[in-house]
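TICKET #2291
ISSUE: user wants both folds in one file
ATTACHMENT 1:
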Amino acid sequence: MMAGIWQQFKQDVEHEWERWNMKKEPDNPITSLNRYIREAERETEKVHRLTERQRRLAEEFQYELDEAESMLDKRKQQAAVVKHYEENELYEVALREIEQYGDRAQKLAAMKKEAEEQLQTIEERHEEMVYKLKDMRLKRMEWMGRENIARANYNISKLYQKDGCEPEARFREVEHHIESMEQYHEKQYEHSTFDERVARLEKRKTEAGQEKA
């Protein structure tokens, strides 16, 4: 039963690892990378859970091995006792169980070793996935910075080149408009001043004529 569990677990790990390595990065850089990072986070968490399962499995092998070795030592001691008292029937039972527990301990030791080696492999792969995830997050930060620069350049370009006008041409246009307004108001002021002065002179002339009369 434990061997079947172990085989199923190995298949699950290999399946997750293949899915991780077969993924392809989509076309749209930042949007696709965000989606890929979220998916990678989920896959990394799955492998983390598989790692914990594998660790518990290795611990269970160790527990079963300890039990088998304990029973093996116990039967050896009991065999020595019954042999001393020439209890042949009990001695034969003890020998059979010594052989059984010995075989079981040997198999469990091999399975435990395989489980620990596989655990190390899974942990290394999980660590690799974690590093890949960190690299993707750094790449996202790099791309976001480049995107910010690109957007800033675009906005500046749009500001200065709206309607096809270059910045210098737009400034000259504004400056010309201001100068035209200044000239207009200066002329208006001159006309107004001229009219006022003439009106005062005409008034003085009228007043002088009235005094003579």
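ATTACHMENT 2:
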Amino acid sequence: MSETLDMQRGLLLGLSPGRRTYWMAQAVALLSLVVLVSAVPFAKVQLAKLPSFVPLYESALILNDLITAALLFGQFAITRSRAMLALASGYLFTAATAVGHLLSFPGLFASGGLLEAGPQSTAWIYMFWHAGFPLFVIAYAVLKGREEREPDRFPIHTLTRKTALGTVAAVLGAAAACVALATVGAHLLPAIMAANRYTPTMGIVAGGTWCFCVVALVVLWRSRPHLTLDIWLMVVLCVWICDVALSAVFNGGRYDLGFYAGRVFGLLGASFVLLLLLIENTVLRSRLAAARAELGRLAASNAGDRER
């Protein structure tokens, strides 16, 4: 497993964050908090119903999360890190549940939504979606700490392609189970929607989901030493907390200011890790190009020496 850690340190995501990274992350988190505090008093202000908003927002979010998951699975293929596998699975879970949320949303593809959705289905899928991702982050933080403390306990030869495929199947199965419970099994869940407004029970459910996000943030903060990826994951969780707060805790229902603002927060939060991965990919490609150029120069130099 020490080989895995060495490979991970060679990646930007595995580097220790510098002051600039901390400052940037703190600035984004502080800005998110300021926007949240400013928006909370107006969260219940009813706005116009924009039918195109939800499909546009969720299509972008699903694509974002799928690309992020694919890149993180690529990181897992390099590092063979269980922590990276857990995080990649988290993004895959959010993408899969977001698909269910989109298909079940009333009025988009059918008056009551697809997948045999009922009036409570979409809201419950949202709760499963936003409670699930923090659990994967907690798993990432715990596994990362164990891999660093006990590297010999996690041999990389046990993490094969079958392991990754099995994990993907399990995650998709879990997402499908959540969607099925919220649609076919909706009668087993308490009512949290009354038309487009929230019931009092929603406050309890949303508060619990919010707590999952806070706990994940605390666990990740305590899993030191921090990597660059950890810092930006904490930013993602801060934005995720703002998302849940505006779109489920402090607002009153669909199509109010909190509904729209929270989802904008969610889309922005989902983009941070993807942006970091794309930057890393660009840097690694530039390093590869420089290495190839250096090898070419050395080969030409050696050929010249032999001719002499």
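RESOLUTION: both attachments delivered.
EXTRA DETAIL ON ATTACHMENT 2: The first helix runs from residue 2 to 9.
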